[in-house]
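seq/struct pair 1
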Amino acid sequence: FNDFNFLKKNKFQFEENIAILFFNTTCAICELEAEQLMDKMPNFVDLIFVSTEHKDTILNFANKFRLYHKPGFYFAQMDTLLIKEKYKPRGLPAYILYQNDLLIESGKGLISTNQLQQAFQLNIE
């Protein structure tokens, strides 16, 4: 994740399951996704929210949904051209899922905790 400009400058030790969520702070569906994930935080996956917007705008979004300091939630800024060339999202929101550093799924639209569980084949109560 060297291409990501994380808002927090800590060294991260990510879980084996990682969801990269491409979003925009003015996207209503992206807001809905953040609300749903906030209410039912999946503890089996690290969520990395990535936007091309200014870091202050991303930080305001993270704070609005009380996600900035929540464990497992990370926020990053990335150049638009780099996102389009390297990750090729087909619109916003979009997601890419990795398990043990291997791409297992990508898609367009919001993703729910249930979809994450199925993608990572987990039995969570």
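seq/struct pair 2
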Amino acid sequence: MRIRRNWPYLALLVFVALPLLWIAGALAARSGMFAFQGTVDPEQVQVFLTFVGGGLATAATVFGALLTREHNARERRRLRLDSVLRGLESMPEEASVQSRVAGILSTMVLLGQERVALRVLEPAWQSGNVDAATATWCIGQIITGEGADRDYLEGDRTDPTAVNEAAVLLREHSDKLVDSHGYYFPGHFLHEWTTKTPLPLKVKDNILRSIGTMLRCHDRRWWFPDGRIPIWPTEVLMKCVERDSSTSVQASAALLVASLYEVNPAAFRRAYGVRRTDGMLARAQDEPLSDDYVDLSTELRTAWSDPEPSGHTASHHPHRPRHRGRKP
């Protein structure tokens, strides 16, 4: 990621600075400037100084062009965001609080002010002044580092503290991510267990705990309409089991997806194949897991063991996610 962002400076170093140094050294060696006897020819010194001066001028020109490019990119970004802010200010008075908060949070994230956005998001979510779709979008942008239009300054890198706080906030409000109509979750994790920036283990753990809490929020018939295995979160959990670099994270995800498997083993094996299913079940036994995951898996198995749970009004219609997803 850093190489991709800093390629102009690397190009300046590789194609300008290093060739100049090599040519200057070669000329100095061939002209005998490093000899301990005799004197240097004034013409050789003049040629050498002319070459060095021209090289420095070229390097300064290229460096100035890079600085101008960076400044122009910042200005374009600032003008775009100024337009967004003016649009928020021009919203009609009758606009809902949720609409205003959603616009403000989105702007903060796009400005790269992740910590400020999280300070606003936490109380707004707690008081119901922000909807789950907006909250999960902001969290997803912060976790994956795709919210702001990053430039080349070190201060504009992804903020690891904000990433951890966003994952914790997602877990703390995971019981609000499912309603009678659908579910909400950061889009990057709806179908794939991949991000452009590698995530710390604690962030992955909070994401998996959030998924487990979401599963607990509805009964078996809601998640398994007509007995079908839900695409989400089964698919993302299977990808986590197969792709994640941490064996503990793989085992945690396998324990959750095993709860889905036990609802309809035959349908699960048809959907994901015998080999993938057996590998997932074996992975669930590989690592000693925390009691939280074991308790959560036990709760899911107990709650889903009865296809007609009492105290819940089961929906007989497929549920479509409200944020970049497909129906289960």
